[in-house]
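Morning!

This is the sequence you dropped in the shared folder:
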Amino acid sequence: MTPADATDAERALDEALAALTRPTARHHPTPARDTGSGAGPGADPAHADAAGAPARTAPAHAATTAPAPAPPPAAAPAASDTGGPGGAARNPYAAPAEPARGSLEQHLDEALALVGRTPAGKGGAHRATAWSRAVDTATRAGALTPARTHHAPLAEALGEVLVTPLDALTDLPSFDTSAMDGWAVAGPGPWAVRQGGGVLAGSDRPLPLACGEAVRIATGARIPADTTAVIRSEHAHATGEPVRLHADRPVVTGQDIRPRAQECRSGDLLLPAGALVTPAVLGLAAAAGYDRLHTRPRPRVEILVLGDELLTEGRPHDGLIRDALSPMLGPWLTQLGADVIGTRRLGDDPEGAEALYRAVTGSPADLVVTTGGTASGPVDHVHPVLARAGAELLVDGVSVRPGHPMLLARLADRAPDQSAARHLVGLPGNPLAAVSGLLTLAEPLLRALAGRPPRHRYTVPARDEVPGHPYDTRLVPVLLTSDHAVPLHYNGPAMLRGIAAADALVVVPPGGVGAGQDVEVLDLPWATGGCFT
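The structure's back. Tokens below.
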């Protein structure tokens, strides 16, 4: 079996799995409203493809080295979804009609048998990396890369990670201040009101108060020496001539005064190294007297979109398709905390291969992300270019669907006057497969390069049964409710309809998960607020 044949078989397998989980009119006899996740007339159209019925588990009899299949039995006649004479009308909210499930399962069995054969490659049989191990490898690759650091102005440090601890440069507050608009008073009342203007924030040091004296004071203003307390404006009244101040409730010594160093003393640790610079951190740093922060800059990423069949505008036509990856990858990587320095499109011809080599060897980015060209077809140039460039393949194929032919490479070191070694993540050309590569290799690598911890891992129960691949992990788009992960349809490798409506993807182990079974969740960056970039 040739690598090209294996790729075709894997594509057939992914499409068969997607078809088996796609809804048909049989599953939705009436367009009922389902406020939880369904696609009734009152449902959110963006979420209208949530799975409405348990999906069947893919056959578990295929193995990595399965023998060639026996001739399949004749397929059963396709069942009609149209209702036919006297039958129910087609549900307008159901997916388009599919071939009979029996024929789909036959197609799936054949595809599983084909991809079960281990293709021969250079140096013997190629074995894909397990999904969890691929994630760990990407994390470790980023963590072992020498960090770039800089001293960034506060306005440019948002979303970066502190290299050194944030220590207080001064007491906070640096003097006793009023916590309220009102009156500063000394001693017991009633108090004689000092004539002239009051004490304002930012004004010079005020004169001390004599016992029995009061003066107007603003929030944040320096407290006069010998002040006993601050009385809020609404808790006192002034009468008489000369004017005297009377409290409307008991006065407690020290009330509404923020004493010096209440928040911290000079030299106190405010935040440790490794803390993410959020908007609140910027405020704290400014209050503590910082103009710049010592941080790790956002990793620089360059995107290279490969393919001659891609259109940049208009509708698909004449065998050409729209480039869906360029509009998606840049913003996605930005939300992961990257600094995307450019997106280029390269052809599949020899000139494109040469341009790819120049980009891989000369890009100033910390990470080069390519799309397509990671298989072994006649115009798949990524592997030959990496070999020519002296790159080290850390991951070459991952046991995950979609996205099996993704890769991670460590590029050759730069010249001594340039920064540390870089990496390349090769994403498959199909859109959802590319998303799988982003979550599996690009995100953990970028997190480590930026000095951020790995993503928080958690599980939720699956609302419905989710079919699994016999020996690979599956990443499936889902909606997250308060109680469950609801699997979405249109999750084939070339489809974006499911992921566009999703909150997350779930990690489905080989063999699948049953309804109510816990499944690991990979949040999408915009569903959790993304990075501060």
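Headline: The radius of gyration is 32 Å.

More detail when I'm at my desk.
O.
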